[in-house]
Amino acid sequence: MLYAYNHCFDAFKETLDRHRSGKHAGIRWVTNIDNNQDSKLLEAVRTFTKLGIQIRHTKSILPMSFGISEKEIGITVESRRAGPLNASAIFSSEPAFVEQFAAIFEELWDRGIDSKARIDEIENEAETFIDIIQNPVEIQKRYHALVASAKKQVLLFLPTTTAYRREEKIGIFRSLEEAAARGVDIRIMLPSDKEIEGKIQEMIKSKKGFEIHKIKTTTPTEARSKILIVDRREYLMVELRDNSKETFIEAVGSAIFSNSISTVLSYVTMFDSLWGQSELYEKLEAHDRMQKEFINIAAHELRTPTQSILGYSELLQDDPGEGAADMLKSLTRNAYRLQALITDILDVARIEAGTFTIERDKVNLTNLITTAIADAENQVKVSGKKIEISYSDKQMQQAQENKDLSVLADKDRILQVLSNLLSNALKFTNEGRIAITTVKKDNEVIVKIKDSGSGIDREIFPELFGKFATKSEKGTGLGLYISKNIIEEHGGRIWAENNPGGLGATFAFSLPVAG
């Protein structure tokens, strides 16, 4: 490395300039930075790192130097058999040879630790300590002191729900709350059961700076240690002697307290890996909940029109005379409702399977809006609500005069989106007004539907266009999810916001103008 620093610095700088401009993949370097290196080498490492070279330290270094590009490898072997240092070099573009050494490099790279952390470890080696603590009382004191010393981050892994209860009793969570209050990032991983689930959710909602991920409950043989890492510089690993005990003093055995950077980073890597796994587990768990919720909602929603259809059919068969017209209307209305539910379910299935398609054609958007309004006004009459639906004359006139309010779209699908958004507005508006406006901007048309209803609930706002996002007692919560996919399939955007002043909400979407 010193040779490269003294003789190849400009070449490296030129290569990294190309890397920054996107013309080169960059440089990675693995070497052994041991604690006997002189200050010149450490300075070379620092300079190369600032320049943009990624450098890692590993003890498992080969007795040779080699460098690899995508197509070539160069190897230098040093020897002192003849007295003075001799070096021989081999260069090859043989693919198998390049691939083999590339694999060796990646293995060395994965084992290595960041050069900055290694240099810090060397420079602070006189202060590096590893304490083995046998006294449970002392372990508890050190536990609190370590949390209290945190300035940036606390990572805590608890292997069992019983460990959570013990930590709660000795006040560790109060100490963590105090740390969070002074700006420390708190991340906790632990199993969960019904008894502590409520407490965990309360902490997540009410405590800023807290992130808690649940992990699958470990078996008794796996539940051996809890790990606390503070500021990625110190750690406390506490071994459990008897997890069945209710008090901290009775449950713990020995502990290791250290600031060894290499060990700390190993635990950080393990924690980050488990953190990623827990995020995936929570997503899968949420997906399972959504599926169950969907089955329950769909079963309920499908049952209602089905029972009505069967009931009215039986009545018509028994007494086709008086009241037949009203029964036929109800039968037809429920049949349409059933058809809409089945269509939504099939659309979601196509979206999930990646087979959802649209047929684009030149479509008059004004005509589609007028049709959707007519359907919505029929819904208003049936519901008995006092709601006015408007699409301003000025917009209509402009569209008719210019004859350019045309979009390249699937007529039926865009009508489906308009119907979904209008039905949604009607559902959450008891009285007032629903106003539709269209604006042509550059190469797109923006359609806005503004209502004077209850607005969008804060709880579902982040997942508004996801599956089953609804606060209504009726409906499957699929309409906005399907609408989003339809609009995005057309190359447009869809969004929503609560109106200023807290009265109602506005949903909007854009579509490309037909050429």
What's the helix and strand layout?
Elements: H1 2-7, H2 9-20, E1 28-31, H3 39-51, E2 54-57, E3 65-68, E4 73-79, E5 86-92, H4 95-111, E6 113-114, H5 115-123, E7 130-133, H6 136-148, E8 153-157, H7 161-169, H8 172-181, E9 185-190, H9 194-206, E10 210-214, E11 225-230, E12 234-240, H10 248-251, E13 252-258, H11 261-318, H12 324-353, E14 361-364, H13 365-383, E15 386-391, H14 393-402, E16 406-409, H15 411-427, E17 431-441, E18 444-451, H16 479-489, E19 494-498, E20 505-512
Parallel strand pairs: 1-2, 8-9, 9-10, 15-17
Antiparallel strand pairs: 2-6, 3-4, 4-5, 7-13, 8-11, 11-12, 12-13, 14-16, 17-18, 18-20, 19-20
Helix pairs in contact: 6-8, 11-12, 12-16, 13-15, 15-16
Distance, first to last CA: 61 Å
Report the portion of residues in β strands: 15-25%
Q: In order across it, which strands form the biggest sheet?
A: 7-13-12-11-8-9-10
Per CATH, the class of the largest domain reads Alpha Beta
Mean of residue pLDDT?
Answer: 81
In DSSP terms, counting alpha (H) and pi (I) runs of 4 or more, how many helices? 16
Radius of gyration: 33 Å
Number of domain units: 4
**Biggest sheet character:** 7 strands, mixed
Structure class: alpha+beta
Low-confidence stretches: 218-222, 393-397
CATH topology of the largest domain: Heat Shock Protein 90
- Mind telling me which CATH architecture of the largest domain this is? 2-Layer Sandwich
